[in-house]
Write a structure and sequence with these properties.
Blueprint lengths: L3 H4 L8 E7 L2 E8 L8 H10 L13
Antiparallel strand pairs: 1-2
């Protein structure tokens, strides 16, 4: 896609952006909306637990 310095001017001045690099070059850029969150799978499971949900593996074991 481009080098980071080439896309710097096109990024929003406020907000969150997810940038993916490959071999030192930017291969994708995605603006993260206000109603979106980025988290690891483990964090997602913990958030679900805090909300009262239980997540199970296909074998029936809780995560």
């Amino acid at each position: 896609m481009a080098d980071f310095k080439d896309i710097d001017e096109t990024l929003p001045s406020d907000g969150r952006v997810l940038v993916k690099f490959h071999n030192g070059r930017v291969v994708s850029v995605r603006i993260i909306r206000d109603d979106e969150h980025i988290a690891s799978f483990r964090a997602l499971i913990e958030l679900a637990g805090q909300a009262g949900y239980q997540i199970f593996t296909p074998e029936g074991k809780p995560l």
